[in-house]
Task: structure prediction
Amino acid sequence: MPRKAKGQRPTFFTDPQVEKVLAMTMALAGEVSVLRERLDTVERLAEAKGLFSRQDIEAYRPSARVAEERERWRKEYIARILRVVHEELEAIERGETAASYDAVVRAVSSS
Amino acid sequence: MYEQIQHPLLPQATHDERARQHFVHALKEHLATTVSPGNRVVYEKRAKPRFVRETQRAPQNHHEVRRVMKDEPYYQIWSALQRISQEMMWDAVASSVERQLPDLVARAKQNKGELGSLTLNPDLPIPPYHTAVDIHCQPGGYHSETCPDDVAAGAIYDRAVHIYVMGRMGPLNDDLGQSLIAYLKTAYPDLQPRTILDLGCAVGHSTLPYVDAYPDAEVYAIDVAAPMLRYAHARAQALGKRVHFSQQNAERTTFADASFDLIVSHILLHETSASALRNIMRECYRLLVPGGMMFHVEVPQYGGLDPYDAFMLDWDTYNNNEPFWGALHEMDLVALASEAGFAPTRVVQTMIPSALKVARSRTGLFQGGDFAGRGQWFVFGAAK
Result:
C-alpha cells in the first residue's frame, strides 16, 4: 500500500528540516499516547481482576534501592534525549569545526 | 469523544491502533478548537496592521490575506501541525486496514447478497483530477488497488472520515445526506422521487439516508473508484439498505435521458475540475426528468465571506491536496447551471443547518474538518 499521498508536500517554515523534526516529534507524541493508553488498560484490568488497584499504585513507595535504580534510569534517559546538545558542547571543547573535519578528509586522502 | 458505529464492514482496530487513532482525533480537535482560533488574533494584531502599513488599505480578498499570513510563525506552526495531523490520520488508519485487508476483502465478498447491486467497469478511465494528486492526502487516493477485489481505500476512507470530522458527522458519517434530506423535507414537502442518483458516492455514507427518507424510491449511486464501491455495497448490505452502486464518471454516465427525479452529491464538486464540473452539470440536466431537481452539498462559496474566513477555508486548496477547492468556491454557480440548460430563476443557493445534534459541537470557524463553516452546509441546486 502506498504510504505517501501523491502531490508535493507544502512547507511552512523557512527551514524545511524543522518541519521534519516537528513531524517526528508529533509521531513520538502519538506513540507516547498509545503507550499511556495501554498502561491504563493494564491498570484497569489488574484492578478488575483483583490483582492490585490504582490506589495501590498511588500508595506505592519505592524502597531506597528501587528509588536509586529509577534515578539512574531517569538520568540515562534524559541524557539520551539531549544527546545532540551534549555532543555539541563536547565538540566545542575539542575545538572541532567543519573546517577541521575537512582538513582530516584532505589529510587522509593525500597521505 | 464521539465514537463511530462498529458496523460489520468497518475495520476492527487493535488496542494500540485504536489508541493511535484516538490520539489523531484528539490532536485534530485540539488544533481546531484551541490553536486555530489564534490565527484570527495573529491576523488582527500583526498581519493585518502590517499589510495596512505597507499598502494603506486592508486586505480585500483571501489571496491578500494569505500573502501576509504566510510569514507569521504562529500560522506556520498551526499549518505544519494541521498537515501533519492529516498525514498521521491516514497512516494510523491505513496501517490498521493493511493488517486486516485479506479479512476485509473476504467479508465484503461474503456480503454479496441480494440487497441492491454492484456493477463495476474495469475499463472506466480514472479522471486526471483524481490521479494528478491524491485528494485530501489519502495515499493512493480513492481509486488505487493493491490486490484483487480490493476494498482498502473504502475501508480507510470510512474510518478516516470519522476522525477527520472529529466525529461531528455522526456515528455513520451521514450528516451530509441527513442534512440535505431535512432541508428537502421542509423546502419541498411534496417531493416524492421515484428514482434518486447520488454522484461521487465514495463509501455511500451520504447515500444511505435516502433509502429510509424516500422508501418508495430506487436509489442509485455512482463513483469512479472500484475499491470504494465494493466497500460501499457491502457496507450498505450490512446496514440493510438497498442501493444500486455502479462504477461511472458523473461527467458522462450510461443512464438513459430523464432517468432520475432527484440527483444529489455531497462534497463532490470540489474534487473535480472546471471542465468536469461543466460536464457534470450538463449530465445532471440530461438525466433529470422535466421538473426533476439536482442538489449539491458543499462548503460555502467565498463570495460575501470575510476575507480572513475565506483565507482559512481556502487552506485546503494549497495544503491538503484539494486543488479545485478554491476555484470552485469563486465560481458563478448560476452561470454554471444556466450554461447547462437550467433556467437561472430555478437555481437555488442557500445555507442549511446540520440535521445532527453532534454538529452543534463544531467550532463555528471556517476551517477544514469542521466543514460547513459556522456549522452549516452550502446547498447549490436547480430544477429542470
Remarks:
- Chain A has two domains: 17-60, 63-111.
